[in-house]
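User: Okay, second chain of the day. Same drill as before: sequence in, structure tokens out.
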Amino acid sequence: MNEFAVPILPSRDLSGTQAFYERLGFELRGAPIERFRHFIVGRGTVELHFWDAPNIDPLTTDSMCYIHVRDADAL
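Assistant: Same drill. Structure tokens below.
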């Protein structure tokens, strides 16, 4: 069995976040944003979840996810 962690990250702007990750080659997985105000993007074996947090203050709230890639410049 393969085990893995899936981060669930806050987003102040779900549409903007989705557009950013799509530019990096991630694809929408699951229901569209409008259905649950949450979305999942994936690229290969990497899967990220984002939840709607329009009032979150990035200066006082910590949240991180490290994605290791072989060639960041190519990405």
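The chain has a mean pLDDT of 87.

User: Thanks, on to the next one.
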